[in-house]
Amino acid sequence: MSDTAHPQLALHLSRKPNSDFKNFIETGNEQILSRLKQVAQARDRLHQYPDSKPDWLYLWGGEQTGKSHLLLATCQLAEQSGQRVFFLDAAQARDLSTSLLTGVSEFDLVVVDDLDCMHGHGQWQEALFHLYNQLKDRGHALLVASEAPPQQIQLSLPDLISRLSAMEIYQLTALDDAGRADALESMARQRGFSVSEDVATYILNRSGRDLNSLKAVIERLDLQSLQEKRLITIPFVKKVMGW
To answer: 43 falls in which pLDDT band (50, 70, 90)?
Structure first.
């Protein structure tokens, strides 16, 4: 996503560190991850099979299902595979001019996050409808994420809803307790330490269960353990977190 490729690219969401596939806990979402990796590496497939169709995927799921993480991971891998990628954060874009989309259909892969944020923004819905058609005409790919399936995101443009409904639609599954424990262990490994199964269970029984809360716990434990040069044990977690 080179800023020189499009004058408005500096406006998209900054990529978050570690937003790649290897740092996503795939429990319950294995098929979706496999499909997204195919999207990201479609350039090789289209080169080998020029008559194959471009990818058009719609992901939906509630908060903390990892939609944005997966979109950014797909962008990263797609760029590494030689695709030109445009990422649009609808929550930010809705307050900007729709001229932001000028020339975007020239990109190999267009990614739109938080599409449901376009509720009540008719001009943007119209612009996205035209972008959809332009991408289709050029044979380029589209990846969209929202909190609900197309018929439930309360867009006011029926033609856009119809187009979105024709995409491949996948629902992301929220992590269960085993997945959350895996997430805790993954976050700890990224920071250079480990948490035992007992420690992970102790944290899950007392912390907020969303990933942001769990991440905050890991960050706090990491900082305190470095300062005190202590291992991450249940007594240490209890003292640091006040549990």
So the answer is: confident
Q: Which two tokens stand for residue 42?
A: 């479609």
* Cα angle, residue 144 at apex, residues 140 and 148 outer, rounded to 5°: 150
Residue (of 45, 68, 229) closest to 146 by Cα position: 68
Give me the DSSP letters along 110-175: EEEE-GGGGTT-HHHHHHHHHHHHHHHHHT-EEEEEESS-GGGS--S-HHHHHHHHTSEEEEPPPP
Tokens of 210: 């969303």
**Percent of the chain predicted with pLDDT > 90:** 66
- 190 phi and psi angles, rounded to 5 deg: -60, -25
pTM: 0.76
**pLDDT at 177 exceeding the cut of 80:** yes
Residue 172 identity: L
DSSP states of 70-121 as a string? HHHHHHHHHHHTT--EEEEEHHHHTTS-GGGGTTGGGSSEEEEE-GGGGTT-
User: How far is Cα 73 from Cα 69, in angstroms, rounded to an integer?
Assistant: 6
